Amino acid sequence: MRRTGFTLIELLVVIAIVAILAAILFPVFSRAQSKAMQAACINNLKQIGTATLMYCHDWDMTTPPRVACDRTASIAVPWSPPPTTLPAAPPGGAQAAWGGQVGWLWPYLQNEAVLFCPDCENNKRFFRQRLTGTTAIIYGYLSNAVYSSTAAGSWANHPLDYFRYPSHLVIFLDGFSRDRYHVEARSGAGGSVVYYSVHDSALYPGNTSWGGPLMPNATVTNYEPPSWGSWTGAYSATPNEVFEARHTGGGECLFLDGHVGPLTPSLLHHNLAYYFDASGTGGQKDP
Predict the structure, then answer these.
(1) Where are the domains of the chain?
(2) Would you give the end-to-end CA distance of the chain in angstroms?
(3) Helix or strand or coil: residue 94?
């Protein structure tokens, strides 16, 4: 008698083979997707680096004057130039830096999508957050302001020949800011005006113990992705401005010479001067 179908055993064998193949291939697909997002992130940072160097060439070979937005007048950081020297303050009184459509990157990028890392979960988490009378735009990158408590330590407002080793001076990196922003007006539907809180912020001033603990740690054991920066409370999982290791354990960093490379939160945390201090007495002293 001729068979017209499969036996139960044959079907079970086929199902088992498909399941085994799926178990093998799904992690491969996941890694491929992760690598694709990392490549897009690297491309974003390279474009930011090109825009930064274009700015320098247009402005007498000098780095941009502001490395982070000035949300309030009480921030004790000598941003250059001071807010009082700018022609006008945007709504809310805060000063823009590199982000939005009024920041110094905009004439060279003309594309805000470049400022969003495709692998930034915190963008998805906080993007719909509403701040008083505004809509939040939270980018996937931060600038370096770790040593900006002094003009010498900041990478802002210096001629390019000021920097001895630009190949290890980080200027932008994977990260995001939840609480520091400038406010700008944009055109909405029907000619209306919409105010946006644009989070063009930075990792802020500090020293060898700056920024609180690494995450995760013995107290906060399940924080993802691994991060380091400024937190609300000493051991809180609520971030303010943080560097994130979004890409297979590391975060991408843009250096002043234009190249992009991955670093870990622990490496940055324990080598602040080497990667963040622009002065000749800090990390720029020794390669």
Answers:
(1) 8-285
(2) 82
(3) coil
